Amino acid sequence: GIVNGMDVSEWDPAKDKFLAANYDITTALEGKALNKEALQAEVGLPVDRKVPLVAFIGRLEEQKGPDLMIAAIPEILKDEDVQIVLLGTGKKKFERLLKSVEEKFPGKVRAVVRFNAPLAHQMMAGADVLAV
């Protein structure tokens, strides 16, 4: 089977080759902010350090909860100034729903419905909140 978890060497923000800016415990605040700006620019969201950025990375299958995330987005955006980036592939119905949410909330939501390992690393490094 596939062991859950992550390779701490590959995902170490001090050495991760996919990040816009590497950082460690002493430079984490600025490093996270720089990666957030790079992520916002890469996916076409307005670059703004002050706006909370939520990231969802996962297979688009029922057991991973994309339907819950999709249902929550309008509620989250109704009362909050937030940006949301979603990355994943899977069932076509979820891929279509993600793209429709992106169309409904331009400038707030980006849905990337393809496999993109470098973007996943950048999302982990730049997001303020990870939706799991």
TrEMBL record:
Domain of life: Eukaryota
GO MF terms, alphabetically ordered: alpha-1,4-glucan glucosyltransferase (NDP-glucose donor) activity
PANTHER family linked: GRANULE-BOUND STARCH SYNTHASE 1, CHLOROPLASTIC/AMYLOPLASTIC, GRANULE-BOUND STARCH SYNTHASE 1, CHLOROPLASTIC_AMYLOPLASTIC
Protein's name in the database: Granule-bound starch synthase I
Species whose genome carries this gene: Thinopyrum intermedium
Gene this protein is translated from: GBSSI
